[in-house]
Structures are given as C-alpha cells and as structure tokens.
Amino acid sequence: MGWKYDLEYAFQVNVLAQYNAIPEISLDIIQQYDQTVNPSDQSLFALFLTFYMNITNNPFFCDCKVYDIAAEYTRVEEWRYRCGGPAHLEGWDFIHDLPLHNLVCNHTESDGCPSGCHCQDRPHNDTYYIDCTGAGLSELPSTLPENNRSKIEMFMDDNFITEISNVPYLSRIFNLTLRNNELKSLNAEILKDMTAKKLDLRNNQITTLPKEIKKFESVQLTGNPLECDCNSMWMKQWMDIDTRNADPDLTCTANNGDILHIIEMTLRDLGCTNEALIIALVCLGVFLGLIIVGAIFAKRCPYETKVIIFRFFKFHPGKKYDVDNDKEKEIDAYLVFDHEDGDVIGYVRYFLHRLGKQKPLFSILNPAQFMEAGPESRNISKYIGKSRRVIIFLSKGIFNDEWRMNEIEEAEHRQIEAVTIKNNEISKKAKQTKRLNKNANTGKDKDDREEDKMNDLTEICIDDLAAGNNDNADELEFQEREEASLKKAPKLIYIIYNTDETLTKQLEEEPWKSRLDGKTVLRPDPDDRLFWSKVRYEMPQKGNGNGKPFMPFDIPKPERPLPIKRSPVPSPKNPKSRNKNDHNRKLTGPIKSQIHATISQT
C-alpha cells in the first residue's frame, strides 16, 4: 500500500481496510505499518493488537495462516471475519464459530512433500502430518516440507521400507506407523535416538527385537515372524510389567518349532530348563537350610529338638531305659494324683483320653480303683515296681494326702536304689577285674584259686541257710522280687497341673526345688504345642495296652478304711528294712484280672 510507519506511538494507528481482497493476515502485511517488527517474532496476534484495524469483509482463506488470530483474538463483539475459501469452509466465521482443527495447510510436492504423499500442517495440536500409505517408498523420506512443528506423525503403511533410517527429523517423530512393509530388523541405536511415543510395526519380517523397544509407550508387533530362545524371556517380563503392550496375540517360534504366545511362555516351553538340576539344587538348598536352622535350634533347645525328631520321624533319639525292656514290667504308667480334687480327676481323664487317641496303647494303673487285697504300702511298692513310668500330677492338694506322698516317695526311693545298685555293681566288677589282674601278675597257683572258689560257695550257702531260717516264705519271696525290681526303677514324669500361686511357691522352695532339679517336668501350657509330643516322647516306645476300654473314673469309688500311719521309707543303704507291721492292714480289692486298665484307640 506504500504507506510508511513513522508515528511516535503505535497505538495512534487506525487502519480501515474492509471490503478489500485480503486473503490472509500475515507478517508481511503488519510490516507495512511497522517497519520495526522483527521477522523472527512469531506472535502475530500481539502485533495485530497494536493497531486499531478493521479488515472485515475480506475473502480470507481459512488455513493455518489465520490460526493465530482465530485462536487468540478476543474482540468478538466488534467485527466478524468470515472465510472466503476453501469451498467447504466458505462463509464460516473463523474467529467465533469455526473449530480450530479445520485451520490446516496442505502442502504439495512443490512445497517439498514426497511424491505420492499427503502433507499437512496442523497448528491446533502442533503437529506436522504425513501420510505416504501405498506411495511405493523403499525408505523414509530424507526431507519434509519446512515447518516449525514440534511433533511429526508419519503413516508409511503398505510400502517397501526395509529399515528405520537415521533421518534429520527422527527426533521429532511422535507417531510412526510402518504396517505391511519389509522391515527385517530394528537398529537399537536408531531406537535410542527416537522420542516417539507410538510405534506400529505390524505385518513385517522382523525376527528379533532389541530391548530398546521397551521405551515406547505403545508398540504393535503382531504379524512378525519373531523367533524366541532362552534369551527372549525379557519380552514376557516386559509385557508383565507394561500391560499396555501386553498383546495376547503376539507369538514367537521356539527352537523346537513350537508357536508360543509370548505373554504366556516359560523357560520350560523354550527348552531352557534343566529341571532335574534345578530340583536337586533347590532340595539341596532347602536341606542345607534345614540343617543350619536345625543345628541352631538343637543347640539352643536340645530337648525340644529330640521331641520334634520323635514326633515327625518316629525315631526316639533320647536315652534308652532298661526298664522298658523288662517283660516283668507289665504296667506302662502308674498314676499319682489327688483323688479328692474333682478338677484334677477331670484333667487326668482328659489326659488319658488324649494319650489313647493314637498308638501305641498303654496299660495304665489307677491305684485309687485297682488294688489287690493286702497292706497298702506293699501294694504301692509292688505295683510301682511293676511299672515303667510313674506319672505324678502335682497339684496343691496332693501334698496333704499321706498315701499320695508315700507313692511319690516310693517312686523316688526306687530311683535312688537303682542308682546305688548300679554303682555297686560297677564297683564290684571293677574289684573283680582288679583281683584277676593281680592274680595274673602274682602267678597264683591252682590251689589258691580253688580255695577262693570254695570261699565263694561257702558265702552262698550261708545266705541260703539264712533264707531257710526265715519264718515267712512269702516275705522272703517278696524281698527277692523287690531286689530284682529295684535294679530297673520306673522313670518319673512330673506334670504340674496348673499355675496356682500356692503350688508354684511350694515347688520353688526346698525340698521340692531339689527334688525336681534335673527331672522330667512338664506343664500342660496351651502355648506349648509340643506338650503332647513330649508326653509320648517320655512314655515307653512299646505299650502293653490290649485295647480294653479304660473306665477307672466311672467305677464308684469304694469307701477306704482309715489309713494306718506308715513308717518312713527305708534308707537306700538298707532296702530290706521295710516296716512289717503293714502286714496287719488289709484291703479288699477286685480280682487280679482287674488290676490293669488300658487306653483304647478313640
């Protein structure tokens, strides 16, 4: 228009240019009015507002060149700017009514668009769009029409492209589609340089994938003859983590020819596992771990370790007792408990019920119900002597029962006697060995040895004469059985019935503190899951139970005669000095076949 801008203040400009043939608002037009405009300044809207311009009623061509004004101009009430072209937008008010995505610029081959392609500048989403579908290309276009968009969308389907090349605009590609081409491989370095979010590579000839493929937000790979081996498990792991790319239809071919769904494949499917070796190593690791844990536990808790071994492996690693091999010991357990306490009786019944729920079955003697006629002291001694175990249920009332205390003292006395007899036998054997060694060293002649033999026989005869002079043959027989029985004393098991404070205090004081020291003491604590295993561990390994029902507590308790004061338990040094006055006290009891009761399998 030939007019030059020489005003001191820009806002003094008032331009009236309506009803002309202006097709667009460009930087060149603004520069006619302000020569100071920097051509590199892309904010056409800011410049346009500097002037008071009225350019309505011009045939504007509505493409990307009017996008800035359409998107930012706010003087909506003053004038209307209508499109004069293209034809499908003619008459639209591009400031107020036209959706902005319609304001695009289509570039042709003369603008640098590849032959057979459709190129479009889309300012509304800052994208340059290229569609070369079926254009017969063998590679990506080396150049594109000049544009300043930050993102490029390329649709290169149905061509003959064999690789993704390192083109100048590679870093600006946002979405790349290469379906139905001839890609055989992917360059890992090229993929590293790409910033694309979406990559569609369906129906190509790709056989292997680089791990860099994981960087894309969306990847489509179906229709490729992928091969998988032992190093391909990363693809499954990738899909497990990135569920957006977990394509259930994506398959690969294993070395054995099997077609595998990648999302479901395993090392076993790929033939990459040595199961026997893995199982062996796992078992070895578990075994070594158990040994280490077991060794630590065994060192800290040796008793519990033995109980656990017995419980799970049915092997008894503890001490073997001679009394368990004595066939004369026909009673597996002799019970000692407070017969006057209903709670204790109920617990003992429950105890026997639990003990009888599994084999072996044990023969149990409840002396309160089964006892032969005769002195009670002798019956106690006799049946404890026939027992392999004596189970003592300690409760606060048991200390006030004279006969229960006598039973406990009898059982403890027998253990002391057994130790004394064993020590005497060891000592006697040592003396005999010493005498034999001495005879061998001194060269004692045959006559001397015969003399020693005669002396031994004389001593035996004297003992026999003394026995023959005994006024009571039954008493002598009883004493002989006692001597034999004392050699194999029953094992004592103390069960502390409850946590009563009086009972606890009494057991912590003398003499019970010393009496329980080093003994087998169990507590039926609900927190002790090994309690019943400990009980069975302490019981004989082979029971004498015959399967008959155990009913001692269901039989009415007979009236007991008043007890006669019993003499003290004899000293371990003189086991034969028992009080014979107890012969005068008799009890009437059931027949001999009723002595034993057994626990049955429940």
Automatic annotation (TrEMBL):
Signal peptide: none annotated. Residues 443-452 have a biased composition (Basic and acidic residues). Residues 430-452, 540-602 are annotated as: Disordered. Keywords: Leucine-rich repeat, Membrane, Signal, Transmembrane, Transmembrane helix. Residues 329-465 form the TIR domain. Coiled coil: none annotated. It is a single-pass membrane protein. The chain crosses the membrane at residues 276-298. The keyword Transmembrane helix applies. It is found in: Membrane. PANTHER family: PROTEIN TOLL-RELATED, TOLL-LIKE RECEPTOR. This is TOLL-like protein. It comes from Mya arenaria. The lineage of its organism: Eukaryota, Metazoa, Spiralia, Lophotrochozoa, Mollusca.
